[in-house]
Amino acid sequence: MVTVPPDAVEFLLSRGRLERVEPSVTSAGFLVAEARRHVVSAGTLAETDPSMAFVAAYDGARKAMTAVLAAQGLRAAAGEGGHTVLLDALRSQFPDDREVLQQFDWMRATRNATAYPDSDHPTATRADVVEAVPAATAIIDLAVRFLDLP
Fold it and tell me: What are the HEPN domain coordinates in residue numbering (predicted)?
């Protein structure tokens, strides 16, 4: 694993892990709206389909992080580890919100175990959803503050 320095955005760009795109606050706003819907869906599905509920909460957090980058004219490059790049890029830019953003790491691991189940890694449970919904909501709130959305 590569250690990401404090100026992670430039580092990730130089490594081809981030790409420059046209900045779009409109796209960012759309992603945040979708992220909010995903978290609502997660709450609705928690009892009947915890795996899908967890993935919805995770996707809400992921899309909120993607929104921040979209507004900055950045996106994670396609390929393995693209979701980790989101965390690395945002963690370096929002040092006061590292604890909030760190929640994405366990959510990513649980989402991967749920999407690609095996006997060594349990899939998401209702209890995981109960933790993931407020974690995703906090990440969405960070994006909303950054983007100055209502």
Answer: 48-144
The amino acid that residue 134 corresponds to is P
Q: Of the ranges 58-62, 117-121, 129-133, 144-148, which one carries the lowest mean pLDDT score?
A: 117-121
Domain enclosing residue 52, as ranges: 22-147
pTM beyond 0.85, yes or no: yes
- Are 90 and 146 contacting, i.e. CB atoms less than 8 angstroms apart? no
Radius of gyration, CA atoms only, the chain? 15
* Predicted local confidence at residue 7, as pLDDT: 82
Q: Is residue 12 part of a domain?
A: no
Looking at the structure of the chain, the number of domains it has is 1
List residues bridging with 18 in a β-sheet.
76
Q: Are 129 and 42 in contact (CB under 8 A)?
A: yes
Q: What is the spatial distance between Cα 16 and Cα 25, in angstroms, rounded to a whole number?
A: 23
Mean pLDDT of the chain: 92
Residue 115 maps to a domain: yes
